[in-house]
Amino acid sequence: MSDHFIAPVAAHEPPYYAVVFTSVRTEGGNGYGETAERMEELVKDVPGYLGMDHAGTPGGLSVTVGYFRDEVAIKEWGAQVEHRAAQQRGRAEWYERYTLHVAKVERSHGFERERG
Amino acid sequence: MSDHFIAPVAAHEPPYYAVVFTSVRTEGGNGYGETAERMEELVKDVPGYLGMDHAGTPGGLSVTVGYFRDEVAIKEWGAQVEHRAAQQRGRAEWYERYTLHVAKVERSHGFERERG
């Protein structure tokens, strides 16, 4: 259990974009963890970045969803130099397979349990 | 490690929809697992259902992405009687908080490592 407060990214006012990245990793680390942490920090510098949700089933699928205000923000992140290098290493070393879906959010809502 | 082949849902021909459900659970099971399995089976009966990706970090966030051909399919699944009952139980018992994003996929692609 992580010691920080765990919460999914909140519903933003549509339209905005959800970039869904689903992946299965190769065996072994090869620096993946450090790079993933670095990317999580770097993406925060992109104007229009709204947040990221990530979950990984041990030994199974990883699902990461990045939220962006518009296409400009997605393109800026996709073209970021360190991120491009990480994408190349991902295909060369880290990923067995992945799928990327770029999707425009039309509606969203959130739920939070009331405290008794 | 699961003993079946693990693969993310493949990129379909756009447009299609990705329904992103991110959640944090309450403590305790209360029948959640059985219902989740039942829902995974039931949704397959919905015309236009394309597949589902799920990952859950132990003690952390769960991310589920359901893929549907169109809005009609999403609405049919949302209104399905057993699914509606499960949604109500989710808010009453299983979820601490969640966010739902309904998004139209504009582009997608996949990668698969070549076998040496």
State the gist of this model.
Chain A is of the alpha+beta class and about 120 residues long. Chain A has 3 helices and 4 strands, in the order βαββααβ. Chains A and B meet through β1, β2, β3 and β4 of A and β1, β2, β3 and β4 of B.
List the helices and strands and how they pair.
2 copies of one chain form a homodimer.
Chain A lengths: L15 E10 L6 H11 L6 E8 L5 E7 L2 H9 L1 H14 E18 L4
Antiparallel strand pairs in A: 1-3, 1-4, 2-3
Organism (chains A, B): Streptomyces dengpaensis
Protein name (chains A, B): Antibiotic biosynthesis monooxygenase
GO molecular function, one term (chains A, B): monooxygenase activity
Order of strands across the widest beta sheet of chain A? 2-3-1-4
Fraction in helix of chain A: 25-40%
Q: Averaged pLDDT of chain A, please?
A: 94
State the CATH topology of the domain at 29-105 in chain A.
Alpha-Beta Plaits
Q: N-to-C terminal Cα separation of chain A, in Å?
A: 23 Å
- Figure out the total of helices of chain A: 3
Low-confidence stretches of chain A: none
- Cα Rg of chain A: 15 Å
The helix-and-strand class of chain A reads alpha+beta
Q: Could you tell me the number of beta strands of chain A?
A: 4
GO molecular function (chains A, B): monooxygenase activity
Keywords (chains A, B): Monooxygenase, Oxidoreductase
Organism (chains A, B): Streptomyces dengpaensis
InterPro entries (chains A, B): Dimeric_a/b-barrel, Jasmonate_Hydroxylase-like
